[in-house]
Here is the input.
Amino acid sequence: MKINQKIFLQFGICIILFGLIGILINNLIINLIRTGLGFNFSWLLKPASFALAEHPLPYTSSDSYTWALIIGWLNSLKVIFSSLILATFLGTLIGFARTGKNALLGLISAGYITIIRQTPLLLQLMFWYFVGFLGLKDNMFIQIKNIFNISNQGVEFSGLNFSSEFLALLMGLSIFTSAYIAEVIRGGILSVPRGQWEAFRSLGLSESKGLIRIIIPQALPAIIPGLTSQYLNLAKNSTLAIAVGYSDIYAINDTIINQTGRAIECFIILLVSFLLLNLLITNIMELINRLILKSRQYS
Amino acid sequence: MLKINTDSIIISFKNLRKILFSNLFNSIITLLIIVLISVSCVNTFEWLIFKADWKVVISNLPLYAFGSFPPNEQWRPATWIISLLSLSIFTLCGPEWRWLRKNLLIIWVGTIPLGLYLLYGGIGLSPIMSRHWGGLTLTILLTVCSSFLSLPFGIVLALCRQSSLPLIQKVSSMYIDGMRAIPLIAVLFFGQLLIPLFLPVGLEIDRVWRAILAFTLFVSAYIAEDIRGGLQSIPNTQIEAANSLGLNQYQIIQFVLIPQALRIALPALTNQSIGLFQNTSLMAILGLVELLGVGRSILANPEFIGQYIEVYVWLACVYWMVCTIMAVLARHLEQRMTINQANF
Here is the structure.
């Protein structure tokens, strides 16, 4: 295409695009005037006047909406990072079991992966919450010397309290993500050429030592990108917290919309929060990736 | 004859010993697993047969399948589901009639208007509002319509992202990256809330179509990335060859780029539609009575209160089965595609 033609085409598309956006915004303004809402963020400073069951920092219902949103952010981060660690641990175990020598173990982990991947996450979350935690009767306390205590109120572990909502979400998210991480790990291990296995065996290294020293370092560069995308999925999936009544960032936005009707402002807040969260996770993983590459270069 | 048999049995036993009891650690794990499996199998079967009360599933079967569709019209969604099922079976193991095989894709696409006609009614059938739709029918309808609509949209987005015009490229990149950053439930929720706000006064879209629209907007961003992967893996020589044949830019896109990119992206695309099928369950929190929504409303019924395990196990089985059927169909499609490629 000639340069002139290109500029002309872009100009035309520009006009169509802006026209469309203009029509949509015009509709929006008319509708906002009709419902009497308008568009501003001054409501953020008003008292939220709803209670939150779970707050890592002190919170009362007379605190502002902004503070409620920050609490929601912290709740989200708490569940995302704890299930991220648990899912990585579980996924690594299952991934190794899937590729390992024991055929029975491989078969079981393959079954686990298919069952978990072929059922919706929401169903699994509801299962863990309603069957796993609320199903425990009040009188069915499982107590071990007052240190460890499971009931339908949650788990108490030497003074630390975890609510059943948090634990159900943690279990559901980590088990769901672990099935995907296991496949990533398996792909990474299979990407190491067979010759490497034969080489370390012929050098007389033990199976476990060879795995840690030879195989895993070579598998990591193939694993990290897959792991990053699974972590991003986990962060996005954590918004299903609303189904079990855990007050994460999305659930709090939902409550605010029900109270104030400020759908557009809340959508923008949510969009920005998730862009920031994605940036955080991708940057951390990028850092880890660079460290791994660096350690390989200098060794 | 007998001797050979015993030999092969001995060999297979040796193999079994090699993969299950190669050393002490392995043997311990194998024994542990066998004990665990047998205990859990016994418990599960005991629960399945004696303890579980399947009345909550059996007496509500029409509800799971059709939601609150009027009882004397339920043959309509039933016809649609049965026609989809028989078409799947035919695709997988039907006879090799050439003319039918060639038009199979058109028949599959044709099931969408058929389903919409059967559900909505209209000519010759009594009209039924979309709020009466529900159950597995609604789940399948959401999946089929959204995947069908998001494919062309995704292709356009992918082409725009690969475009040499900077403005178009920037806008589509922004859309794709933005959509991929936000969680699906937020898109669906704001789809329900915001789409009416952006429409002119008086024009309204019902809940089901708002959901389909939101799913389409979301999934097309993912599909666009998959297709972009396909587009990028096409060697540049293909475009040069097409240029030297005298094809213009649109012909290159239509006859050279799109078919090859779709073929490469096919496994990823089928995975997206299986994921979409599972994700339609999110509409249960947002007020549509699809399969999981039916489960929730049954559990809210005082007659069946507390029977969570039965309902969830049943729903998991249904989701698992449909996902498996979709996966088998996808594999079949991939195999046929590679055969076609080999013929050329």
User: Anything to note?
Assistant: The longest helix of chain A spans residues 263-298.
